[in-house]
Amino acid sequence: AHMKNEELGEARKPYHHIPVWWLGMIINVVGELGNLIAYGYAEATVVTPIGAVGVVFGAVIATFILGEKFQKTDLLGFLCITGGVILIVYSKGTEAVIEPTVREAIEQYFTTTQCIVYSIVVVVATSLLIGLSEKYGKKYVIFYTGLCSMIAQWTVLGCKCFMSFFRLTVEKGNNQFNQFPDGLFAFAVLLLIIVCAVWSLHYLQQAMRYHDNNKVIPTYYATFTLACIIGAAIVYREFEGASINAIALFTLGALLAGAGVAVISRGRIKKD
């Protein structure tokens, strides 16, 4: 949609006026619903890195459908990503998944000192990135993708506890949404998920407008994965109690997947 729109020059339309854009949006929403469900059955530090598979399919689609150049080194990148995902799942795929009630989520996770400090740091960093993206975003892909990732990580952190509330309500009959005033927190989390998802999507669209998909997708994966791992480690303490071997394998897997992303994104420059 963006490629066709840019060809119109001064007659460009807002992207939300383009039917093909809405088709892509609907497909993306369906995929994100799958992600939402996944966060209820596995740790965020496992689900998010597995999104590297999307980088592989994104690069293939961009090459064969959008006509962007496919480099031979991309195959090496795909192999690195595959190996990284296997190591990540092997190191943490059997960890127990937390299922906090609304009260437990408030007291044990979202009002802790580390969560409050982390939230302040993220707000400050997001504010700085908004200004930097306006100035440098058209030239450097990292600014829009980094800003998008900084905001989108809150959809992951929110999905993690919201799916716990949902599972407790539907699967175990412990309704978390009809408790007052605690139940209001569950709806506040849902609002946070929606707002951050829509807000981050705007900056992702900006990144895709000014840079090739084969450059945006891998860079976004790297920044988003890093933000989510750090956020989940601080807010939900997902590495607490993990063995040194498990942490080492996870780190190796993340680095291997990151190397694959770097190989795929290397040398991809937007066509004039």
Describe this structure in words.
This protein has 272 residues and is mostly helical. It is built from eleven helices and no strands. Helix 7 (113-136) packs antiparallel against helix 8 (141-170) and helix 8 runs antiparallel to helix 9 (183-210). The protein is globular, with a radius of gyration of 19 Å. Mean pLDDT is 83; it is low at 267-272.
What's the short version?
The protein is an all-alpha fold.
Key terms:
about 270 residues; 11 helices; globular; about 75% helix; disordered C terminus; mainly alpha
Biggest sheet overview: none
* Shape designation: globular
Low-pLDDT parts are 267-272
- What is the arithmetic mean of pLDDT? 83
Please compute the radius of gyration using only Cα atoms.
Answer: 19 Å
Binned, the helix content reads over 70%
How much of the residues is beta strand, in percent? under 5%
Quaternary organisation: single chain
SSE string, helices as H and strands as E: HHHHHHHHHHH
Distance from first to last alpha carbon: 17 Å
Total beta-strand segments: 0
- Class by helix and strand content? mainly alpha
Counted by DSSP, the helix tally is: 11
